[in-house]
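User: Before I run my own analysis I want an independent prediction to cross-check against. Here's the chain; please return only the structure tokens and, at the end, one sentence I can use as a sanity check.
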Amino acid sequence: MILAIDIGNSFTNVGLFKGNKLIYKSKFPSIDKPDESKVIKIFEKFSFNFKAIGISSVVPENNPYWKAVLTNYLNVKPLFITGKTKTPLKLKIDKPQSLGSDRICNAVAGYQMYRHKHNVIIIDFGTATTYDVVLKNGDYLGGIISPGIETSSQSLFLKTSKLPLLTYRKLNFPKDPIGRNTAEAIRSGIMYPALDSMENMIRRIEKFLKVKLNVILTGGLSSLIYKKTSLNVIRKQDLVLIGINYILRYNNEH
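Assistant: Structure tokens:
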């Protein structure tokens, strides 16, 4: 089995793969390092039987904790994914080593889903909303980073004195784009521009590249965008974990 760990800004996701199948997943807030006993219970559940471990981390200060726990209890050195890690992609960008590991994993997973058949853009609605473009020949062209949906809500709350904070669970599309109260006005002002921005950005990139892109949505609030968009897209959860699994398998085979 392969153990994949996605250390994101908000949450850390731990996934176990048997082949290409995700058979177990657990989630911890990234702000608090999880109690070791909770992590060890996951290991015990699968009899400490892990062939390889991969980590995508955008929170460097959490890395020593996970490295110590994994080394002490599993005696397996984890692979921290970076721009220098061997993958099936060719990173056609400035300073590949600076590319976020979560974006690398998303790009690899998206490429594997459409390998040699279609160009793809992966859009991850997380703490930041990221776009990553991969051509069918394996060229990773780069992408876009913009404030995430919930991040936009938090910023509005922090920078104003009277507007309420709309958290993750309270963010949705109002039926009427014209808000009849403050909360609805904020929902409309955050959700509809996020949708319009995504749709227009995809069209802009396709026009610039003169190619058609298959669109994959992932991340916490992608379900809301997926239901509302008029574009032909697919939604795939746990894409970073899936990418970690692909990268580990690729490194074992090459």
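Sanity check: The first strand starts at residue 2 and ends at 7.
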